[in-house]
Every structure is written in structure tokens, then in C-alpha cells.
Sequence to fold (243 residues):
Amino acid sequence: MSYFFVALLIGFVIMFHEFGHFIAAKGVRIPIAIFSIGFGPKIIGKKWGETEYRLSLIPIGGYVLPEIEEENENEFFVLPVKKRIIMALGGPIASFILPVICFSVIYSFKYGLSFANVLYKPIAQSIKILYEMVISLPYVFAHSEQLSGIVGIVTQGGNFVGTNLMNAIQFVALISLNLTVLNLLPIPALDGGKVLLYLLEKIHPRFLRLHLPLAIFGWIFVIGLMLYVTAVDIGKLLLVSVV
Fold:
């Protein structure tokens, strides 16, 4: 049961990230056609203004779909670069805000309400962990056995969280900070890569031609990496079960 709960927590972290994109897009008046909680076929949905808010079948994560014509995806790139950058950064910013909220709850519960426990310490703790994650990236990628996919995260997370609410909140904070770092990597399929391409486009419009081929390359790389780490996770589980 704890593994299913951990999967839902991961879904919540991803959904919060997508909500950041949504709020950022609304803030700069980028029209959003769909904001979905979950993936897959729609279960229920309601249109409010220009946006359809829907609940989808697979309750993990979510997505934000800008309002563009299906046959003209280049319509999105007509939007000012500044607006697209703000929308892209909305997700990582939200993924940083969520751990601050989590650590605020933990510190306030353990030590009581105060400015330090509600705001200062949570922000400082989030920045410290974020910094440690960033400087550890070269080591992690140099030692591929340290990488972990969704299977490994759910397995390890289930063991860590158990039935402890504070552990669950801390797990959400750590996963969200991991998502912040991951999405800011300069890989075209990720938010950091999108921002980089948008900035290049700002330098010279000809760089716009690079979006599609680099995005395809980025997705191939990300999907390949996900398949690799999933295979490694399953291999570790099978090895443990044999031992």
C-alpha cells in the first residue's frame, strides 16, 4: 500500500510542477486550452473561460496544453520569447516552492510557529539541498549505477515513507527538488533546454529552426535514459529477490 501511496505522491509533485507552468502562462496571458490532472483519456472535464480543466484516467502528474491549432504547432513560436521563457520557468519555480512549503510544515510541527521555522529555515534548507544536488550531478552521471528511475524511486520511497506522515512530506520535498534540478538541465526536451533555445532564438531568429530537431533528439535521449534506469532498477530488484 505504501508503494501506491508513494506513486501518488510522485504524481502530486509532477502535477504541482505543471501547475507552475499553468500559472506562469496565465500570468503572461498565454492561452491554455487544457489543464489536466493525470494523463490518458478524459474522465471528467469542465470548461471555464478559455481553458478546459479535466481529470484524466492515469492519476499521476498532469499536463498543460497551450491553445494552438493542431495543424499549426508553429503558432506557439509566434508568442514573444519572454512569455515562453516565463512559462517554461514556471514549472521549476513551482518545484522549488513546494519543498519550501513542505519544510515549513515539518519545522513548524516540530519546533512551533515562528518566522524562522515558517520561512527562513525552509528556504535555507531547500537551497542547501538544491546546491548539493547540483554539485553531485557529475558524480551521478559518471556512475550510472547511482541513477534511479520511477521503479527505484517508488521502491526506495515506499521503504522510507512507510506510514510516517513527516517522512512522506520530506519525500515530496526531496523529489520536487530533484525535479527542479532535472528540468533545468540544458536538454531541449526539458524546461532548461527550452529556455536555452528561446534565448538563442532571441539572439537570432534562424535558431528557431533548431527547435524541432533538437526537441526530437532531447526526447529520444530522455526516453532512452528512462528505459535504461528502469532496466537497472528492475535488475537490482531481481538481484535482491534472488539473494
User: Anything to note?
Assistant: The helical segments are 2-27, 81-111, 115-142, 150-161, 165-183, 191-203, 211-242. Residues 46 and 105 are 32 Å apart (CA to CA). The first strand starts at residue 32 and ends at 48.
